[in-house]
Amino acid sequence: MKNNSITAPIQINNSAEKSASNDLQKEKPRHLKGILVRALSLALLFGAAYLVYVLQNDFSRYNLSGLDSNWGIAILTVTGSLLLFRAGFFFYNLYLYLRYKPIASVTDAELPTVTVIVPAYNEGKQVWATLMSLAKSDYPEGKLELLAIDDGSKDDTWEWMQKAKEDLGDRVNIYQQPQNKGKRHALYRGFHLGTGEVFVTVDSDSEVSADTLRNLVSPFVVNDKCGAVAGNIRVLNNGQKALLPKMLDVSFVLSFEFVRSAESSLESVLCTPGALAAYRREAVFGCLDEWINQTFMGRPSDIGEDRAMTNMILKQGYHVLFQRNAFAYTNVPEKYTGLYKMFIRWGRSNVRENIAMAKYVFTDFREGSKTGSRVLFLNQVLKLLMSYPTILMMIFFISMDPVLFLASTLFSILIWSSFPVLFYAKKYKLSESFWAYSYSILYTFGLFWITPYAIATASKRGWLTRG
Question: Name one GO cellular component term (predicted).
């Protein structure tokens, strides 16, 4: 017995050591692959910068010859104007970002009652992890109501919801849609079931930090005009072997912590993300019928429910803010196919909601200044309008001289992407920040077609990434 009792722990330790060793062996190739991709991206961009220097006489020749024709003058004028606008809008955003400050959490006594709604479809075990992270929130238990709604899943999502109910008891209520109706209908049911003064929506593939909920809803307490709040979204699965989540994490930091901070300074955040958002109850019910019955070109809208809700709340005259201190970590696509489908869905929603926004943004839709909202809208519209001319100019430059086109495009990426690199490095980790260069190369050459395609197919329905 003595020998067995001594030997067993040794065997366990050996097993644990082997497992740890195997994990390290698997991690090394992943780590080296990531380093190689970032190094190659930098080499490509700096090589392009050197090529631009070497070929500067050719660039000058093309610029001068371009001035000899009306087409050349028009192209140079449009390109120059776009560059000036982009630069001006960037510095405007930078000014707004520097003005932004997240609202600190209010006291437990001041916190409102909150209903958290988690719609789920074919999410499997992740929905359990999502609900457990919410249950661990540093929020008064008597003021927190958790609702999970299975939207007719075909996998074991409902079983995992039942497991969460078993673990959490009365702290969570679970419901099952009779059939898959879409995320919008699952949320609609949650809005009618919930009793909270504030609704919080959390995607079933997301997890939150302990202080997320209290930070997210505090703006409603200090600002009576606040109708919605966007959370700060980071990537949950960026520790996996896939490279896309690592790139998207850097992209998300710029999109949320810089862009939405700037929009929040204007009290006009344009989209509260489905992964984490909060809404004042009165604001939701002020547009709920319009939202659930929304159509585009005569067809029911089954995508972009987050952007649509934000738009309709802005239209009512409410402020929409961003809380940098309210984090949610969400799973993102790990393959190109899933990524472009997600972007197409977002792009179509963007087209639809900009059309909807055009109908009220130049009216007296709220008290106080409306200039900021209008500037943000015009920037969105300009991006859409310039998508086709940009592709035509790309084709024109490629036909004229593909080498000059490639060199100048990569050099532009080096310049424009250096800000996301510096921004991420200052806030998080320098080595990870270089993914911004890799992502910009991928987007420029692999995803440039998304916006034109989304415009041309804006009326199409379908989630695309749901199996």
Answer: plasma membrane
- Residue 272 CA to residue 295 CA, distance in Å, equals 20
Name the pairing type of β-strands 276-280 and 226-235.
Answer: antiparallel
So what's the architecture of 103-369 in CATH? Alpha-Beta Complex (3.90)
CA-CA-CA-CA torsion sign (265, 270, 271, 277): positive
Strand 226-235's sheet: what is its strand order? 172-176, 144-150, 114-120, 198-202, 276-280, 226-235, 319-330, 206-208
What is the token pair recorded at 11? 């065997």
**Contact between 216 and 144 (Cβ < 8 Å):** no
Listed in order, the ranges of the chain carrying CATH 3.90.550.10 are 103-369
* Per-residue model confidence as pLDDT tens digits over 250-276: 999 999 999 999 999 999 999 999 999
How confident is the model at residue 309, as a pLDDT?
98
Per the listing, tokens 């072997």 go with: 241
CA dihedral 262, 263, 267, 268 (to 10 degrees): 170
What are residue 101's phi and psi, to 5 degrees?
-140, 130
Q: Where are the alpha helices (DSSP H) in 100-156?
A: 126-135
Asked if the model's pLDDT at residue 101 lies above 60, the reply is yes
The C-alpha angle 366, 370, 371, rounded to 5 degrees, equals 175
Query: Which pTM value belongs to this model?
Result: 0.90
Asked if residue 215 lies in contact with residue 325, where contact means CB atoms within 8 angstroms, the answer is yes
Query: Tokens for 268?
Result: 């006009």
Q: Which residue has the tokens 């606040």?
A: 226
Distance CA 176, CA 34 (A): 41
Rounded (10°) angle between helices 402-416 and 418-427: 30
Distance CA 183, CA 128 (A): 18
